[in-house]
Design goal:
Mean pLDDT: 91
Number of helices: 1
Helix content: under 10%
Bound molecules: FE2/S2 (inorganic) cluster
CATH superfamily: Beta-grasp domain
Strand content: 25-35%
Number of domains: 1
Radius of gyration: 12 Å
Low-confidence stretches: none
Structural class: mainly beta
CATH architecture: Roll
Length: about 80
């Protein structure tokens, strides 16, 4: 059953909610966050973010079915 709400804690105290399996890029937009992207195909690494301590590529991965996720930017935080 997919009706869990995932609470996403972004850098700078931003917050949004999403559903499991939603796209990361879409969820970021809802929090007014732009994840930098390049290839959108999983090969360049521009979109890498750290989610609960694990580096993922936002363009090809979906939001996992967890209650709380904490996101950090893997790259230079001042982009
Ligand atoms: S945009 Fe290139 S890996 Fe995600």
């Amino acid at each position: 059953m997919i009706n869990n709400i995932v609470k996403i804690h972004w850098p700078d105290g931003k917050y949004s909610e999403a559903k499991p399996d939603e796209d990361w890029l879409h969820a970021a937009k809802k929090a007014n966050i732009d994840i930098p992207t390049g290839c959108l195909g999983g090969s360049c690494g521009a979109c890498e973010i750290e989610v609960n301590g694990e580096i993922i590529r936002a363009c090809i991965q979906k939001i996992p079915d967890k209650d709380n996720l904490t996101v950090k930017f893997a790259m230079d935080p001042y982009w």
